[in-house]
Design a protein that fits this description.
Elements (H helix, E strand, L loop, with lengths): L1 E5 L9 E4 L9 E11 L1 H8 L10 E2 L3 E9 L11 E5 L7 E5 L4 E2 L6 H4 L3 H13 L8 E4 L5 H12 L3 E6 L2 H9 L4 E4 L5 H8 L5 E6 L6 H7 E9 L21 E4 L8 H16 L7 E6 L3 H9 L6 E5 L2
Parallel strand pairs: 9-10, 9-12, 10-11, 12-13, 13-14, 15-16
Antiparallel strand pairs: 1-2, 1-4, 3-5, 3-7, 3-16, 5-6, 6-8
Helix pairs in contact: 3-4, 3-8, 6-7
The structure holds NADP nicotinamide-adenine-dinucleotide phosphate.
NADP nicotinamide-adenine-dinucleotide phosphate binds next to α1, α3, α4 and α9.
């Protein structure tokens, strides 16, 4: 089968379309014929050697897939055969991938493979940021950086769904339009003005109860300065570089909380099942929209990475697997 592999870490050019052996479903696993593979910022970091740096190379890239179950391993219910599914799946930049049966989520009928490929990594992250990490509630305000990105657009929608007021930051006017279209109440362009000052002005001088920061180095100070008393900053990425170490002394004045979220933390299985089902229901009923802003063929994975790292993408980046 065809797959995108890298033999050494580096720029997007290290990604190669190669012929590799098809995986075989082991006991408890199914094999999915991949129709769409989600591209995530973390994939670009893996490729650069900044994340998961110890994995042996060559390696097939990827972290999630949407497709059809085409074979089942020993001990797996044959009723899965032919079902349209999505799953968190390492090595999904490929025509076929194997995953554990319990990882499967049935794709709702009216949802395309491209949309499905954008649901799990970014959707679960956004869901846990809003519901597990912070318990955001109606009437509170949240500042979401990179609000038109994959996680960002989903977090905007989930925050609006609980009745919060959403202030987003983005780098371009086109991204601001999309974030507003999906529910953001206010969208600020970084660099246009002092973000924390604008946030305070928009919240009657109070600041926001929650900041979701995936940008890191370049947004860290404005994130802390935007918080209301007893406010909470959740760090979950470092697209612009790692944030500085937290100076606990500096948190006393406003009694602030700083925390970190990682999707690969060992979540209680019940919680993860609940989050996945909640996301599926929101998507099936049209309350949550995944926006595949860039869809390219598997062979164009390097170009997908170039655009994602170049900050030119909005919403989800997807590789179509013909
Ligand atoms: N902790 C976890 O478990 C977890 C899970 C999933 C994702 N993440 C993190 O969440 C973030 C979003 O992931 P995603 O896949 O949805 O990507 P994305 O948001 O679609 O793309 C990254 C966005 O970050 C912003 N950005 C700001 N400074 C940047 C820089 N120097 N270089 C590149 N981008 C920059 C850009 O938006 P603007 O142009 O609007 O600034 C860019 O579009 C990433 O940092 C990722 O690592 C973490």
């Amino acid at each position: 089968m065809k797959a995108i592999r890298y033999h050494q870490v580096g720029g997007p050019e290290v990604l190669r379309l190669e012929e590799v052996p098809e995986p075989v479903a082991a006991p408890g696993e199914v094999r999915i014929r991949v129709h769409a593979a989600g591209v995530n910022f973390a994939d670009t970091e893996r490729r650069r050697g900044l994340y998961d740096a110890k994995v042996p190379l060559p390696r097939i890239l990827g972290s999630e897939a949407a497709g059809v179950v085409e074979s089942v391993g020993p001990g797996v219910d044959a009723a899965w055969l032919g079902r349209r599914v999505v799953a968190l799946a390492a090595r999904s930049y490929a025509e076929r991938v194997t995953v554990q049966e319990q990882e499967l989520l049935v794709l709702p009928e009216r949802v395309s493979f491209e949309e499905g490929a954008g649901l799990l990594v970014q959707g679960l992250t956004a869901w846990h940021l809003i519901h597990t990490m912070s318990h955001l509630s109606a009437g509170q305000s949240v500042l979401i950086h990179a609000a038109a990105g994959g996680v960002g657009l989903l977090a905007v929608q989930l925050a609006k769904a609980v009745g919060a007021r959403v202030i987003g930051t983005v780098s371009t006017e086109a991204k601001a339009r999309l974030a507003r279209e999906l529910g953001a109440d206010e969208v600020l362009l970084y660099g246009e003005s002092d973000v924390a000052e604008r946030v305070r002005a928009l919240t009657g001088g109070r600041g926001v109860e929650l900041v979701l920061d995936s940008v890191g180095a370049s947004t860290w100070k404005s994130s802390l300065d935007s918080l209301a008393v007893f406010g909470h900053l959740v760090s979950y990425g470092s697209a612009s570089g790692a944030p500085p170490p937290v100076d606990v002394e500096s948190l006393y004045e406003k009694s602030l909380k700083v925390s970190a979220y990682w999707l690969r933390t060992n979540h209680p299985p019940e919680l993860q099942r609940h989050a996945r089902e909640a996301l599926r229901a929101e998507l099936a009923e049209g309350r949550l929209r995944v926006r595949p802003g860039l869809v390219l063929d598997l062979a164009e994975a390097a170009e997908a990475h170039r655009q994602l790292e170049g900050r030119s993408t909005v919403g989800k980046v997807v590789l179509r697997v013909p």
